[in-house]
Amino acid sequence: MLKRSKGLAILIALSLFICITAAQTLDFSPADLFGAKRAEAAPSAGFLKDVEGKKGPAPVVYGIATDSMEIVEGVVERGEVLSQILAQYNIDPTTVYNLAQKAKEIYNVRRIAAGRNYMILHNRDSAQTARYFIYEPNQVEYVIYDLRDSLAVTLNKRKVEVIERTIAGEINSSLYVSMVEAGGSPQLVNSFADIFAWRLDLNRLQPGDSFKLIYEEKVVNGATIGFGELKSAVFEHEGEEIYAIGFDEGSGLNYYDQKGQSLKRAFLKEPLEYTRISSRFSKRRFHPVQKRYKAHLGTDFAAPRGTPIRTVGDGVVVAAHYTSGNGYFVKVRHNDTYTTQYLHMSKFAKGIRKGARVKMGQTIGYVGSTGLATGPHLCYRFWKNGRQVDALGVKLPAANPISKKNRGKFDMVKEETMQRMQAIDIKSVKQELLASGKDKKPTDA
């Protein structure tokens, strides 16, 4: 029995020796054989990185040559801090503390957040001591924490290209679905909806209505990371073309029709970005919680919990607290005539309290179901001269039209814009989109 056990031990040892030798020959770590975390030989396409020499034996990442190092990519876990990440790569707490002190004025390590990507470059030895930790707070910036003897921290920014694009399409179902299928984004839909909100009922568009947009796209390393300004648009509704011509009179881009009249009003049309109305202003509505008929002097918007709520105009917060009926709510006084209120929030936005000044479009809270509510939604209320009115029906003053001194410049921009829009053929754009494979099928309208 003893001889058999001894022979088995020799066989296992010999097999292990062969496996390790083969692993070294094939250029991967023996630790891989036992399920340890594998260091990748080259970065994946999971997030944006500056990578040079992709075809060579060792790429250059973030401007750092990796010929003597291994590359490990990861994502910060919930509750994870820098010292925990680096402890796995032979970096002691004292070194992390000294690094954190140097990083305070550049990019504080306490700002490292869950869900963001990082990369570690470590020595090719058994200790696997980290030499660099690179963290990406967003798609434009990356922070290089140099863990070598000098300990250095640098914040870098990638070059952002701004490219002008056009999209066009027809309404087949909702505005959201039709615009995303045409190659747009939810952000573009929201911008478009805000511009046309006072001229069109966006919940009652007709099949066959059409749209054309000229907008800016932000690109880094060939990948789209977001959108800039919507420069101009036109919407054809029931045979009538309504233009939104972007023009800056010195205070930022505003939108005007063909006559130079502003499409903007004193307030945003709705306190949520393009969404669905679930219950309208009514003098007699059956209350789903109280089970009786009563006046509903507000407009309900269905939206997922946590959706940002924006104030529809500049003003001062006159109330921000909790009541059993309203839940968490914010009330904003805009001027002597108009006041608005936002009910059933899950929480307030940072800095929102009584006396705080807010700007049009600023996030003041988030959708919830606090108070008398059966599910997550926003109840939006509107006062005019001290009396509650239908926010969607009230007539509000328009913003100023194009000034006389800028009329000549505007007319030139208008003519150029209209010519460009008329040159866009919707059918051709759709065919090009299909050919490129960039048409999108939204999963959630």
From TrEMBL:
Residues 1-23 form the signal peptide. GO terms for biological process: proteolysis. GO terms for molecular function: metal ion binding; metalloendopeptidase activity. It comes from the Bacteria. One of its GO terms (cellular component) is cell envelope. Residues 295-390 form the M23ase beta-sheet core domain. SUPFAM superfamilies: Duplicated hybrid motif. This is Peptidase M23. Keywords: Hydrolase, Metal-binding, Metalloprotease, Protease, Signal, Zinc. It is found in: Cell envelope. The keyword Hydrolase applies. Its main location: other. Its cofactor is Zn(2+). Coiled coil: none annotated. InterPro entries: Cell_wall_metabolism_enzyme (IPR050570), Csd3_N2 (IPR045834), Dup_hybrid_motif (IPR011055), M23ase_b-sheet_dom (IPR016047). Residues 164-282 form the Csd3-like second N-terminal domain. Pfam families: Csd3_N2, Peptidase_M23.
